[in-house]
Amino acid sequence: MADLFFDYVGIITKAIDLIDDNFTAATWVKETVYSVAALVKPAAANGHYYRCTVAGTSGSSAPTFPTTIDATVADNTVTWREEIPVTITDTLEPSEGTYACVLALGIEKTSESAMIIGNRPIVELVIPLTIIIYKGGEAKTFTQMRTQAYRTLQYVEKAIRDNPSFAAYDSVVKGECGVIRIISSDTPGYYKLGLDWIIGVYVGS
């Protein structure tokens, strides 16, 4: 069955936007309720983000945010953990290799044949995502890079699971996590993981 002209560019763009929501840091605000997984950055940028690991209310003044890998800090009843900024992109892997990224470099069909859901045929599209944590100029250990890669993976998975209808994108009937792959685990300069985002798209009207 021939498919319609899918909006491939729109689908990739929407995927990047949905993932990016989990990695966009708001500026820290005093006396504010924060939930687990909230992401903030200090008013005076220091190149690091901070993920809420214990929910609560922030203090009347900003804590001294640490810049050590995985360090935590108490902020009244909130606990923050240092986290690296992550770039979400559909361009090539950054050449400087100094920051974390999630790459969405393509889109594939699982097959040319369509399935049927509710008497409507769908085709499954797959966006292969690559998570890369670089050692860069930091003295990161292999364990730290691996931990950062899997933490990043958790929030990419959260973006997918929070958007089973692909944020009600036109013609998309489902979105779910697919296969997780270790792409590279023994290269000194980086650690890579792969995750498929499976998207079911209606064919025809």
Tell me, rounded to a whole number, the average pLDDT.
89
Q: Tell me the distance between the termini.
A: 14 Å
User: What's the CATH topology label of the largest domain?
Assistant: Alpha-Beta Plaits
Uncertain regions spanning at least 5 consecutive residues: none
How much of the polypeptide forms β-strand, as a percent range?
35-45%
Backbone structural class: alpha+beta
Major sheet characteristics: 7 strands, mixed
- Element order, helices and strands? HEEEEEEEEEEEEHEE
CATH architecture of the largest domain: 2-Layer Sandwich
Helix amount, in percent? 10-25%
Output the CATH class name of the largest domain. Alpha Beta
Please report the total strand number as a whole number: 14
State the domain count: 2
Describe the structure.
This protein has 205 residues and is an alpha+beta fold. The model has no long low-confidence stretch (mean pLDDT 89). It has helices spanning 8-20, 142-161, and strands at residues 26-27, 33-34, 39-41, 49-54, 56-57, 72-75, 78-83, 86-89, 100-104, 108-109, 115-117, 120-134, 172-184, 190-202. The protein contains 2 helices and 14 strands, in the order αββββββββββββαββ. The chain has 2 domains: 8-22 and 86-202, Alpha-Beta Plaits (2-Layer Sandwich), CATH 3.30.70; 26-83, no CATH class. Strands 8, 9, 10, 11, 12, 13 and 14 form a 7-stranded mixed β-sheet that branches. A 5-stranded mixed β-sheet has the order 1-3-4-7-6, with no helix packed on it. A two-stranded antiparallel ribbon has the order 2-5. It is globular, with a radius of gyration of 19 Å.
